[in-house]
Amino acid sequence: MKSIASRRPRGLRAHDDGNASMGAVGMVFVVAVLLCTIAAGARIAVAKAQARTAADMSALAAADAYWNEEAADPCGIGSAVARNNAGAVESCEVIDMDVAMEVSAATGVPFVERVSARARAGPRRCDEVDATRGASQP
Predict the structure, then answer these.
(1) Do 49 and 112 meet the contact criterion of CB atoms below 8 Å apart?
(2) Which residues contact 70 (CB under 8 A, 6 or more apart)?
(3) Nearest Cα to 90, choosing from 55, 45, 121, 64?
(4) Given a cut of 90, is residue 10 above it in pLDDT?
(5) Which residue has the higher pLDDT, 89 or 6?
(6) What crossing angle do the helices spanning 74-84 and 19-68 adopt, rounded to 10°?
(7) Are 107 and 100 in contact (CB under 8 A)?
(8) What separation in angstroms does the CA of 28 have from each of 10, 37, 100?
């Protein structure tokens, strides 16, 4: 009499040994790639918010320094504020009465090493202020 262990399946099931293991390895790989993609996207979004915050803060600081004449170089003040907010100034220019800054931040993600944001700050013109008040206010 033959033992149960010596019986080999015949037909379609004869070549199925180890098939479930390969399927499990494939599923683990797909899940790992998906999780890495989600983590990279989240890190890029955080870096973009960080660059936007650094650009806003540095533009406001540079405009304040420009208008209060506290410093001869408002872009230097803006650059210092950007560095303190984990950003790097890409460009800074004084346009009429405004200061425009472009700041970048590192992502730590391959293929998308840096993201950047722009901000512009300065006083509003009097005609713009009057237009926003409406007719009911003096």
Answers:
(1) no
(2) 64, 77
(3) 55
(4) no
(5) 89
(6) 150
(7) no
(8) 30, 14, 48
